[in-house]
Amino acid sequence: MVPLLASRALLAAALGPAGRRRLPRLHGNCRLSHPPRPVSRPAEPPLPALPTAPAAARSSSGAGGEPDAEGPSRATAVLRHLLLKLRATGPVTVAEYMREALTNPGQGYYTRRGGIGESGDFVTSPEISQVFGELIGIWYISEWIATGKPKAFQLVELGPGRGTLTDDILRVFNQLASLLSKCDVSIHLVEVSPKLSEIQTLMLTGGKVQPNPEEKSAYMKGVSKTGIPIFWYRDIQDVPPGYSFYLAHEFFDALPIHKFQRTEKGWREVLVDIDPEVPDQLRFVLSPSSTPGTQNFIQPEEARDHVEVCPEAGVIIQRLACRIENDGGAALIADYGHDGTKTDTFRGFRNHKLHDVLSAPGTADLTADVDFSYLRKMTQGRTATLGPIKQREFLKNMGIDLRLQVLLQNSRDSATHEQLLRSYDMLMNPKKMGDCFNFFALLPHHRLAHPDKKHKPESKSPLLPVAGFGELLLK
Fold this sequence. Notes:
Elements lengths: L7 H8 L57 H17 L2 E2 H10 L5 H4 L12 H4 L1 H17 L5 E7 L5 H12 L8 E7 L3 H12 L3 E3 L8 E4 L5 E5 L10 E6 L8 E6 L2 E10 L2 E9 L5 H5 L9 E4 L1 H17 L1 E10 L8 E4 L2 E3 L9 E3 L2 E2 H7 L5 E7 H8 L1 H11 L3 H15 L1 H5 L2 E7 L1 H4 L27
Parallel strand pairs: 2-3, 2-7, 3-6, 7-12, 12-16
Antiparallel strand pairs: 1-9, 4-5, 5-6, 8-9, 8-11, 9-10, 12-18, 13-14, 13-15, 17-18
GO molecular function: protein-arginine omega-N symmetric methyltransferase activity
Catalytic activity: L-arginyl-[protein] + 2 S-adenosyl-L-methionine = N(omega),N(omega)'-dimethyl-L-arginyl-[protein] + 2 S-adenosyl-L-homocysteine + 2 H(+)
Organism: Corythaixoides concolor
């Protein structure tokens, strides 16, 4: 028996002797120039000097000055749009600001730029090392085996970036083609960015896709280089039902958040407004009274003085939990995050450096740490959850050390050898990505406990452990 699909023979079969090495120049921050905030924080509010927004909306008088000079023309367009909106309606929530800056149909960061990679604004784990994606691929194969090798499964990735992670997973599926020969596998990508979906098609299909296919829910389809059908959607609700494995890598951290501050008068929402002293710049203010957000998103037992809540993440988790409950499968989430302990984590990245979140909107990635305790709560008990555990623990449990040894043994030059070690260090070092990223999983309840165990205690059929969330067994 191979409990975690991680014996030396199977691991070698899945990954091959060396594979395709990814050798980017590693930047020191890799979207991590903001050091992890300590779990314990001072009792005082983290944003003590915020002014209170006026209760009435502004009049739309005055054109304002020229926006931030550092931003290109599209940033000027986003900022002008926001300035007009704020003058007409008054302050907006941080969630609405993020939505405009990131996904505005005409000028949003992800719709026009989406700067992933060395030449962009941040680097993700799949871009650093092929090993990361390979081990994720093995995780899904392991779960497929543990649940009885269903005759078909969909791999659904939310926000697939450049398609690098899916490409690495597909390579593992191809290496294990004989194992998957009787299984109908398909790939389903949920992507709102036209720019990124174009990059994904080149990465995964060589650009050979069919726009507006007969499947009305998908806006594009193609076939991977290894012969697996791929479909593109704009919303997870468009993905067909069925036994599915879900993947969300650095997806939830980019969803819009609401920010709240505890005051002497109770909870107030942090809003974005025009700075009256610099009319072409933005600032944070506090709502003058409670808002729908303060009334609906703050838990009665909340002990922190500053809270970030992502309702959109809660909705998506509920949909994933319902699908897994009804159709089976599993979801694996990897992201910056915490378990309900952190406070102010909202930050921006541009050109691999920290960027003022209110400066030149539309030209920088905006992100906030994922609250895994909130995701767990929003499953509403429909699924079991595992984690969060640190990235270095998950990858170690998945056999990254064994894979590194194989690659080092097959590296033929010192530069490749050094790069492999640097990539490993970036992924595993607690001061780099090792402790900043967490893995979290949703699984059907029966995956972790026999439903008939109370009635048949003599049942001796053991459940296979969940790969990655327990210590790797090499047998």
